[in-house]
Design brief:
102 residues; mainly alpha; two-stranded antiparallel sheet; 3 helices; 2 strands
Length: 102
């Protein structure tokens, strides 16, 4: 009987702890992503980058490399307001267009 009571009490607690851990991990990921966007990528968004300047693309590659190499991020992409990829760590995506709403 004691084991059944323990199971009934522990199960919701375990599920709650798991949900909270997932929520916390997602919040941390969003915070880190926003900081990288604001402090690393944002200052490099220039007319030259939007125009596809090779030197500017290379500078952005160098700036984001530590974040990608650390394993904390897997991809970095920058779109313009029309949904065109102006920068991606996967160079084949640059110039492709995606629906900005979806």
């Amino acid at each position: 009987m004691g084991s059944l009571v323990l199971l009934l009490v522990a199960s919701p607690v375990v599920l709650w702890v798991r949900a909270e851990a997932e929520r916390h991990a997602l919040m941390n990921a969003r915070d880190i992503t926003q900081r990288v966007a604001d402090n690393v990528v944002g200052p490099l968004i220039t007319e030259e980058l939007l125009g596809g300047d090779a030197a500017t693309l290379h500078l952005l590659d160098q700036s984001v490399a530590p974040w990608l190499n650390s394993g904390n991020m897997s991809r970095i992409k920058v779109w313009d307001e029309n949904g065109r990829v102006v920068y991606s760590d996967a160079g084949s995506l640059i110039g492709q267009e995606f629906d900005p709403g979806g």
